[in-house]
Amino acid sequence: MTHPTDFPRDPARPALPEHLRTALWLAELGLPVLPLRAGKLPFGNCRACRNSACGDRPHMLAAGPCQCPAPCHAWGAATTNPDVLTSPAWAGAWRQAQAVAYHPGGAGLTVVDLDNADAVAWARRNLPATKTVPTTRGEHWIYRGTLRSVNGVRPGVDLKSTMAYAQWRGPGTGAMVRLPEVVRGLAVKEPAAARPEPCIVTATVPAGGGDCRHRSPAYLERGIAMAEQRIKEATEAIHTTVYRTFLAVLSAHGRCGCLTDAHIKRLFTTAQEKGESLRNCEDAWINARTTLGM
Q1: Are 185 and 238 in contact (CB under 8 A)?
Q2: For residues 23 and 85, is the Cβ–Cβ distance under 8 A?
Q3: Helix/strand/coil for 75
Q4: How many Cα atoms within 13 Å fall on the side-chain side of residue 85?
Q5: Using N-to-C axis directions, what is the helix angle for 261-273 and 278-291, rounded to 10°?
Q6: CB 3.0–4.6 Å: which of 46, 115, 201, 294 could bond 246 by disulfide?
Q7: Which conformational region is residue 115 in: left (phi greater than 0), alpha (psi within -120 to 50 degrees), or beta?
C-alpha cells in the first residue's frame, strides 16, 4: 500500500460540506475516513448492525470490515470509496459532522497519541522524529507500519493503528518514518500501573455468572465498588484510568467466571457518567482482554 508521506492542501470543492471535501481529499491519498459528531464521537450504530453484528469488533473480524452503507461503526465504517462517502446514506452525517477521522491501520499507519506536554517531552527524548501533528492538548506522531491499538501504554500515551480511529488535525510537519521497535514494544508491554488487584474495569465478560472460584463473593463486590470509586475520582486521563481499571478487574476475576452482566453494566455506567463514551468503554474492555490474552 502506498503510504502518504506528505499531505497536499485540500482542493476546493465548494459544492460539498467542508468536512466531506476534506474526507474526499484524504480518501484520494489512501486514508480511510469517516465523519465525527460532537465530542469526537462516531455516529451511532444502525439497527441492522447493532452490537457489532457486522463484524467491526476484534472478536468478529472474520466477518470483515463493516459493510453497512451508513457511517455507523467507527473505524469499521472508514472508507476510501468516494461513492460511499457521497452516498445519500452518509449525507445527513456529513451535514452534522464536527470533524473528520481516519483509520490509521487501514492506511498502513500508526498514530502515537500524546495527550499532554509531559507525554510530548517523553516522545522527544525517546522516539525517532517523524511526521508530527499538533492536537488540542498534545501531538500526534505518525509512523509507517501497523500494530494493535492499545490505550494507556504510558501516562498520556495511546497507540492508534488497527481497529481504531484518529481525528484528522491537519497535514503536520516533518517526514514520516518507519514504525520503530521502541513503539512496537509499547504495544506488548502491560502498563506498569495495571496490577491484578480489585480495582477499576468495564465491558463484556469472557465468561458470565457463577461463584468466584478463588475469592468470596464479598471480595468481588468490594473490588467492583473500588473500581467504580477509582473511575469516579479520576480528575484527568479518563481513557487511561478506565482502561487500567478494566485491566485490573479482568486480571483478578476475568478467568474465573464470577463477573456478570450486572457488574459490567455498573462499571460502564460509572465510566459514562465521567464522560467516557460507550464505544470507548467497549474499546478499553477489548484492549484489556487482548493484553491479558483472553
Answers
A1: no
A2: yes
A3: helix
A4: 26
A5: 120
A6: 201
A7: alpha
From first to last of its 294 residues, the chain has per-residue pLDDT tens of 344 434 454 555 457 889 999 999 999 999 999 999 887 788 766 666 655 555 554 433 334 456 666 776 778 788 899 998 998 888 889 999 999 999 999 899 999 999 999 999 999 999 999 999 999 999 999 999 999 888 889 999 999 998 889 999 999 999 999 999 999 998 875 444 433 333 333 344 444 444 555 556 777 788 888 888 888 887 766 778 888 888 888 887 777 767 777 888 888 888 888 777 787 788 788 777 777 776
From the number of C-beta atoms within 10 Å of its C-beta (0-12, 13-18, 19+), residue 213 rates as: exposed
How far is 120 from 123, CA to CA, in rounded Å? 5
- Dig out the grid coordinates for 196 from the structure: 491484578
Task: Decide if 198 contacts 252 (C-beta within 8 A).
Answer: yes
The arrangement of strands across the sheet holding 41-42 comes to: 41-42, 33-37, 99-102, 166-167
Cβ proximity of 107 and 175 under 8 Å: no
- Confirm whether pTM is higher than 0.85: no
How far is residue 34's CA from residue 97's CA, in Å, rounded to a whole number? 9
Grid cell in block for residue 285: 474492555
Partners of 110 in beta bridges: 143
